[in-house]
From TrEMBL:
Protein name from the UniProt record: RNA polymerase sigma factor
Native organism: Imperialibacter roseus
RNA polymerase sigma factor 70 region 4 type domain sequence ranges: 122-172
Keyword Transcription in annotation: yes
Gene3D superfamilies: 1.10.1740.10, Winged helix-like DNA-binding domain superfamily/Winged helix DNA-binding domain (1.10.10.10)
PANTHER family: RNA POLYMERASE ECF-TYPE SIGMA FACTO, RNA POLYMERASE SIGMA FACTOR SIGV
Ranges where the RNA polymerase sigma-70 region domain occurs: 22-89
Length: 182
C-alpha cells in the first residue's frame, strides 16, 4: 500500500534516502514548469536539479500549514528560475502555442473582430506585464493552476490572486479594444 504524501515527507525528513518517491512524483511536473520559463533543455535540467537539492536540504523546515508540498516545491522552482535569469542577465520568455491564447480568449469573451487582434497582440501584451503578473497569468491560464495553487506558489492570498487576475484581464481587454478601434 502506498504511503500518503505526508507520511513520505516525514520519513524523508528522518532519512534523506526516503526522498526517492517524492522526487519521482514531482520531478516531471517541476521540470515542465522550469522548462516553460527557461526554454533551454540543459539549463532547465540544471535548475530542476537545484530545485530538488534545495528541497531535500530544507525538507526539515517544511511544515504542513495550509501550503501544499507541491506548492512549496513550485515556489522553490520559481525562485530558482528567477535566480537563473538574474545570474546571467537573461530575459524571460513565454512560449506561446495557439491553444494557450485560447484559454485567455475564452475568459475575455471577445467578439469575432477582436479575436484576431487578440491572438496577434498577445505576445506584446504579455511582454508588457510585470514579471509577477506574467507568472500569475501563465499559471492560471496557460498551466491551468487554480487561484489557490497560484497564490501559494506566488506567496500571496487567494483573493489577491483573483483580484490581480481580473484586473490584468481587464487591462489586456482594454488594450485590445484600443487596437480594434484604430
Amino acid at each position: 500500500m502506498e504511503l500518503d504524501e505526508h507520511a513520505l515527507i516525514e520519513q524523508a525528513k528522518q532519512d534523506p534516502k526516503r526522498f526517492g518517491p517524492i522526487y519521482e512524483k514531482y520531478h516531471e511536473p517541476i521540470f515542465r514548469f522550469v522548462y516553460a520559463r527557461i526554454g533551454q533543455l540543459e539549463a532547465s535540467k540544471d535548475v530542476t536539479s537545484s530545485v530538488f537539492y534545495k528541497a531535500l536540504a530544507n525538507l526539515k523546515k517544511y511544515q504542513v500549514r495550509g501550503l501544499s508540498f507541491s506548492s512549496w516545491l513550485y515556489r522553490i522552482a520559481l525562485n530558482e528560475c528567477y535566480d537563473f535569469f538574474r545570474s546571467g542577465k537573461k530575459h524571460r520568455t513565454v512560449a506561446l502555442d495557439d491553444y494557450m491564447g485560447v484559454n485567455l480568449l475564452e475568459e475575455l469573451q471577445f467578439g469575432d473582430s477582436e479575436q484576431e487582434v487578440w491572438m496577434n497582440s498577445l505576445p506584446v501584451l504579455l511582454e508588457s506585464l510585470e514579471p509577477k503578473d506574467l507568472e500569475l497569468i501563465e499559471m492560471r491560464f496557460f498551466e491551468g493552476k487554480s487561484f489557490k495553487e497560484a497564490a501559494d506558489i506566488l506567496d500571496i492570498t487567494e483573493n489577491n490572486a483573483k483580484t490581480r487576475s481580473y484586473r490584468l484581464l481587464e487591462k489586456m481587454r482594454k488594450e485590445v479594444k484600443k487596437l480594434v478601434v484604430k
